């Protein structure tokens, strides 16, 4: 697949619509993997707002699997992940010694 070097005006109305269409496929791919953390009784693996995305995972192995899903998707659409803007937060809970990575 040949990658386009052109884009649309940042902040424009069309950008928001196209982002929703684009990000929907990534969200569905991660959700269908059934990976993530439980928040109460709900399995939550990915959260998104505007162009910010958060992966919720219980182990390092799961974060690797989720990132692979995202990486495969963005590679297919020639859209790079910006590692410089990515952060990892580790939350440790005293309840059953569980922990959750947020990437």
Keywords:
two-stranded antiparallel sheet; 103 residues; elongated; 2 helices; 23% strand; alpha+beta; four-stranded antiparallel β-sheet
Summarize the structure.
This protein has 103 residues and is of the alpha+beta class. It has helices spanning 13-32, 60-76, and strands at residues 37-39, 42-44, 46-49, 52-57, 89-92, 99-102. α1 crosses α2 (60-76).
Q: Overview of this structure, please?
A:
36% of the residues lie in helices and 23% in strands. The protein has helices at 13-32, 60-76; strands spanning 37-39, 42-44, 46-49, 52-57, 89-92, 99-102. The protein is elongated. The protein has 103 residues and is of the alpha+beta class. The chain has one domain (13-102). A four-stranded antiparallel beta sheet has the order 3-4-6-5. A two-stranded antiparallel sheet has the order 1-2.
Low-pLDDT stretches: none
Task: State the secondary-structure class.
Answer: alpha+beta
The tally of beta strands, per DSSP, is: 6
Number of domains: 1
Q: N-to-C SSE series?
A: HEEEEHEE
What topology does this entry show?
Blueprint: H1 13-32, E1 37-39, E2 42-44, E3 46-49, E4 52-57, H2 60-76, E5 89-92, E6 99-102
Antiparallel strand pairs: 1-2, 3-4, 4-6, 5-6
Helix pairs in contact: 1-2
């Amino acid at each position: 697949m040949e990658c386009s070097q052109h884009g649309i005006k940042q902040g424009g109305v069309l950008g928001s619509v196209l982002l929703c269409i684009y990000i929907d496929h990534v969200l569905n791919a991660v959700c269908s993997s059934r990976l993530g953390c439980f928040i109460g009784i709900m399995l939550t693996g990915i959260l998104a707002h505007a162009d910010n995305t958060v992966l919720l995972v219980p182990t390092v192995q799961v974060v690797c699997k989720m990132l692979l899903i995202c990486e495969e998707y963005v590679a297919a659409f020639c859209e790079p992940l910006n590692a410089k803007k990515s952060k990892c937060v580790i939350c440790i809970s005293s309840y059953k010694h569980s922990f959750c990575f947020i990437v």
